[in-house]
Amino acid sequence: MSLPSSLKYSASNSRLVRLSLLTAFGIILFLFESLIPRPLPWLKPGLSHIATLIALYTMGISDAMIIVILRILVGSLLVGTLFNPAFILSLGGGIAATMAMSLARRYFSKIFSIFGVSILGAVVHNMTQLFLVEILIIGRIEIFYLAPVMILSSLFTGFIVAFASYLLVEKTRLL
Amino acid sequence: MVKKVAENSLFEILKIITPGDKILVVLIVVIGIASLFAISRLKQPGDRVIIEVNGQELQRLDLESSQEITVTGPIGNTRIKIDHSTVQVVSSDCPEKICVKTGKIRHAGEIIVCVPNKVVVKIIGKTEHQFDVITQ
Predict the structure, then answer these.
(1) B120 and B53 both lie in a single domain
(2) CB < 8 Å to A167, chain B
(3) Is it the case that residue B12 has pLDDT exceeding 90?
(4) Is A41 in Cβ contact with B28 (below 8 Å)?
(5) How many domains does chain B have?
(6) Is the Cβ–Cβ distance between A123 and A152 less than 8 Å?
(7) Which of B6, B18, B113 is facing A111, going by the closest CB pair?
(8) Domain limits for position B89
(9) Burial class (CB in 10 A: 0-12, 13-18, 19+), A9
(10) Which residues contact residue B129 at a Cβ distance below 8 angstroms, ignoring those fewer than 6 apart?
(11) Which of A17, A126, A131, A157 is least buried, going by the fewest C-beta atoms within 10 A?
(12) Which one has a higher pLDDT value, B108 or B5?
């Protein structure tokens, strides 16, 4: 007996479901993050990159990029920052961080574990945002006075994001 | 059970972390601390306060003065207070209030930015030259 035709595309269906679930997961973290109080207004933990990392480690580079872009589009729409400067900062930082993490994952997977990849992503995310603020909004180099704080905080946020992703990928059999 | 998994995993991390990770962390800490020192050496006492709206310089005020100014940006008013050689944004119509939370600034080169309202408040020092770029 042949399989019903609806099961023929199960590989791409499974990809679609994973893409949707990880995007939704990323959006939830994005929204959650915008609600928690922060000691310094720029310092976000970047929790939504947990979804990016999981996608990168369980699906692939292009799927991770799709998830990031969808998450920022929908997340910004829900937070109310769509197409304003904060959105450009999110999008630029998110895409740059995902590119950096993808490169590290693909070409340096022997050198960096998920922790190194995540910390690298956090640093690139923050630095890209500083550059974007410098180019688009201020045009003055003084914004880089924030750089040390952001670089050092990236270590902690990158570690937390990597730890959460590691637990979800390795310790649960959900993905 | 979740707690146990998390605790065990913290030990497992030590096995997962590669030498490359450790080098990356050390490198980032060194760069972070070095840039912290580099920047703190660049800091000078402030002299003047520059208020920009929409990229246009609106006002240039003495940091030693004591006053409150209200400027209007694309989405509303931003109130700026100069007092005791410090500047702060006391209230703003922007949604996230990041400029208000930034608090007081006092050194040359320090800056408060309100992204939604396109307001920039910055301090320049006495010795700072007034050119944007020098070409040679």
Answers:
(1) yes
(2) 5-6, 9
(3) no
(4) no
(5) 2
(6) no
(7) B18
(8) 48-124
(9) exposed
(10) none
(11) A17
(12) B108
Phi, psi of A75 (to 5 degrees): -60, -45
CA distance A74 to A4: 35
Write out chain B residues lying below 8 Å of A163, CB-based.
9, 13
Return the bridge partners of A114, or none. none
Contact residues, chain B, for A89 at CB < 8 Å: 115
Give dist(CA B119, CA B136) in Å, integer. 32
Q: Quick check: is B131 in a domain?
A: no
Distance from C-alpha of A27 to C-alpha of A70, rounded to nearest angstrom: 9
Residues of B in contact with A112 (CB under 8 A): 18, 20-21, 24
User: Do residues B38 and B100 share a domain?
Assistant: no
- Number of residues that this document lists for chain A: 175
Contact A148 B118 (CB under 8 A): no
Statement to judge: residues B66 and B104 lie in one domain? yes
CB B123, CB B87: distance < 8 Å: yes
Residues whose CB is less than 8 angstroms from the CB of residue B66 and which lie 6 or more positions away in sequence, other chains included: B82, B83, B84
Exposure string for B79-110, b = 16+ CB within 10 A, e = fewer: ebebeebbbbbeebbbebebbbebeebebbbb
Asked whether the predicted pLDDT for residue B134 surpasses 70, the reply is no
User: Which residue in chain B is spatially nearest to A80 when comparing CA positions?
Assistant: B95
The ranges of chain A with pLDDT < 70 are 1-11, 39-42, 138-142, 173-175
Task: From B116, B114, B52, select the one nearest A82 (Cα to Cα).
Answer: B116
Residue with tokens 């030590």: B14
Q: Report d(CA B110, CA B43) in Å as an integer.
A: 9
Closest CA to A120 of A33, A52, A168: A52
Mind telling me how many Å the CA of B20 is from chain A's nearest CA?
Answer: 5
- pLDDT tens per residue across span B57-70: 888 888 888 888 88
